[in-house]
Amino acid sequence: xxxxxxxxxxxxxxxxxxxxxxxxxxxxxxxxxxxxxxxxxxxxxxxxxxxxxxxxxxxxxxxxxxxxxxxxxxxxxxxxxxxxxxxxxxxxxxxxxxxxxxxxxxxxxxxxxxxxxxxxxxxxxxxxxxxxxxxxxxxxxxxxxxxxxxxxxxxxxxxxxxxxxxxxxxxxxxxxxxxxxxxxxxxxxxxxxxxxxxxxxxxxxxxxxxxxxxxxxxxxxxxxxxxxxxxxxxxxxxxxxxxxxxxxxxxxxxxxxxxxxxxxxxxxxxxxxxxxxxxxxxxxxxxxxxxxxxxxxxxxxxxxxxxxxxxxxxxxxxxxxxxxxxxxxxxxxxxxxxxxxxxxxxxxxxxxxxxxxxxxxxxxxxxxxxxxxxxxxxx
Length: 379
Description:
This protein is α+β, with helices and mostly antiparallel strands. The chain has two domains: 6-43 and 174-374, Cyclophilin, CATH 2.40.100; 68-167, Oxygen-evolving enhancer protein 3 (PsbQ), four-helix up-down bundle (Four Helix Bundle (Hemerythrin (Met), subunit A), Up-down Bundle), CATH 1.20.120.290. The protein has ten helices and 14 strands. The longest helix is centred in the middle third of the chain and has 23 residues, at 122-144.
């Protein structure tokens, strides 16, 4: 099943994308099925989200998805993330104000930040705070010199350290996965996957804090070498790139231990919820305004493909969502809550932009967080 007719595609190519947004999104919502690709928080994850436009930075989305509730570190994070938007408008005075606010918080509220860091990580977090304070000086200098590339570089470096501090605040996995999914691998934390393709390398961060079953399935299949040599089976210019269909008649993973098709449930964690919703779309649940912790608002969102009629029919096939502002406005699309996002591409966007149907995955390996994978429980 094609996702839109040739007539609509021609109109879109003529530049009239916006006029046919509803047609496209309805088509998207009924499924990624043709080549079998139907797309079918705890309170701490709601408290410190910035107001305004939806977040489109995958690294920022992952930071806000961490199950923590520390106001000062979130304020520092938000001030530094604002710099990216200020750069586009060359609002240098606003940047200076944001940097000053972040520096003051780190100085005056260090004890509040360290209070939520686990005991074994407090010394490491304190050292990172000191390092950030030192790095703020060259960031301020770059702003004074109005050096955009250097400002971005310094800001990204500091945010990576902020991310480390926030990860040090996570004490334990935040919820219990329903017992009915104990037969599936689960990722109780995060993992980083390096994927080599014919066009270059991608780095994916998969988030078990928000989608432990979907992320666990993916990491398990990566460890098995399942994706090596597989082609991207469908590529649409505006929104998606899909892979994971094995050779042969099966459209998913057959578990060699059971000889059965491994079904993965639809899994969506909503901000403010204690655990994900399983087996039903948010629309079916009547939760039309609910906001997923991992939304389709960033280029390179990684999500499970599934048959249109079966929310729990996913297995090995997944897709990269190619965010297109005109067609899928952040926070206003029909995919959120219908398909399980379980991570984002954080490095290699330029490679993802080049990949097309027929290109192959040469290798995929877990390079960090592999010890967070819990194998299926057997009776």
